[in-house]
Amino acid sequence: MATDAVAVKRSAGRRFAGLFYGRPRIQIGSLLAAPMAWLVILYLGSLVILLITAFWTVDPLSGSVIKELSWTNFEELINVPVYREIIWRTVRTALLVTLTDAVIAFPIAFYMAKVAGRKSKAALVVAVLMPLWASYLVKIIAWRAILAEHGVLNWALHPIGLHGPDNGVTSVWLVMSYLWLPYMILPIFAGLERIPDSLIAASEDLGAHPFTTFRKVILPLAFPAVVAGSIFTFSLTLGDYLAPKLVSNEQFIGTAIFDSITNNQPFAAALALVPIVVVIAYLGVARKLGAFEHV
Question: Phi-psi region for residue 167, left (φ > 0), alpha (ψ -120 to 50) or beta?
Fold first, then answer.
């Protein structure tokens, strides 16, 4: 009897394994079933709840949430100048951080990919990744100390008659550019490594100026990697609230959501949809520019 039971189990196991043999779609589907369920139920489900909540309102007298669909929150975002300025300030800062990181990251990534030797390249990769090992909050607090009125930056600039940035947009730009720089360097480094050295050598052999080689050979081939890196810097800046809260007195989308969530959750939900829409539009532009062609 025991032998028969073992045989039945083996035959059932073989039949079950036979369902997957020679069927790659079923194999991939079974592997992705659990993570996709997690994504749909928890992530996309929470976004749906956020979208529904954005159409609710708060009674001004009782403070209770009125669960009736209304465009009031979105009309307030469009019609009230202060919220338009907050949205534009956040998007403008995200674009500026992205541009700054791209300008700084490209020469670093190029040196890592095309100039540095094997050991130097490994050391530089570790150096780029090392800031990511430190706590995000610790880095912001460190920058807050640097940018303080009696901080290191003003101490260094005082002898030459200069003064560091106040608690405004410039401080947020500096801190964000530092925080997200590794996320720009690494994609560009990966993109530059895929460019064959023979193409650069051929351009030089044909008498092209180094700037011409960069403009017509290197930059077009590495541009999708730059756009891919910009997705990280742009989206991370757009959704951050802790850095603006600690180093600036200006309002950004993240800080406005944080300030509204205790008193007016539906309006906070409506405001939270703004960066989601902006990032989706940015991803559409990035796709057109070829950011996902090597994925």
Answer: beta
